[in-house]
Amino acid sequence: MSVPKIELAGVTKAFSGKVVLAGVDLTVMPGESMVIIGGSGTGKSVTMKCILGLLRPDAGSIRIDGQEVSGLKGRALAAHQARFGMLFQGGALFDSLPVWRNVSFALSGPARERRAAALDNLARVGLGPEVADLKPSELSGGMQKRVALARAIAPRPEIIFFDEPTTGLDPIMADVINALIRQLVSELGITALTITHDMASVRRIADRVAMLYQGRIIWQGERNAIDSAENPFVDQFVHGRAEGPIQMQLRRL
Ligand SMILES: Nc1ncnc2c1ncn2[C@@H]1O[C@H](COP(=O)(O)OP(=O)(O)OP(=O)(O)O)[C@@H](O)[C@H]1O
């Protein structure tokens, strides 16, 4: 069996005594698209930040290609982080830079080559050269998301993290972006880890789904298994019911 691309075992993290991750076990195989679902504040972002080395877990192991990465510092940490692409919730484009400079931000080399690479990546997300010299603020939300996606794939990262990739988009544009993500991840052979509340994203993007609840992965399975999962927590989340075993925390303690 091949070595997992990402492997978390017993990862714990607490902030000022408040336990957020209580022993997360998660395996993502190379080229696989894993989606983590779970309510607000269940620790999805904290899990991603621990994998990226932006937060240090209190205990447990995080392996990439079988190599332990928790506790990396300095250059080793920078090299680790360079293996990842990120699509942030808001797109996080630099508004002072034209689109092509945003897309080629992480690339090196002469400007002419970086611009050519930017145009190539824009084409992959369905945008023509006419947008290359526009500022992000001149584009619609859906187009900005495409630009952010082009920027995330431009360095051909081994792993991409998608953080709520459809936030702020209407359902049709969200579907277009979800389909693009699925297509690019497959075409480029990138391992993808997505966190989302959006079940439409899950159905479009995921090979496998993991549900985080109270600091642990309480269920994982193939995308098609979510509807028949005999797990009341998954069932409640997938169907968005107020009634069920998941207790919403209405105020921060
Ligand atoms: N740096 C930090 N210091 C203190 N508490 C933190 C820190 N980062 C996260 N937390 C807490 O950890 C908990 C989990 O946060 P996290 O952002 O991972 O949730 P999430 O599942 O991604 O939620 P959402 O879906 O709303 O983005 C929250 O209660 C949050 O306040």
UniProtKB/TrEMBL annotation:
InterPro entries: AAA+_ATPase (IPR003593), ABC_transporter-like_ATP-bd (IPR003439), ABC_transporter-like_CS (IPR017871), P-loop_NTPase (IPR027417)
Claim: ATP-binding is one of the keywords in the record: yes
Alphabetized GO MF terms: ATP binding; ATP hydrolysis activity
Origin superkingdom: Bacteria
Keyword terms of this UniProt record: ATP-binding, Nucleotide-binding, Transport
Listed Pfam families: ABC_tran
Domain ABC transporter: 6-238
Name this polypeptide is given: Phospholipid/cholesterol/gamma-HCH transport system ATP-binding protein
Organism: Polymorphobacter multimanifer
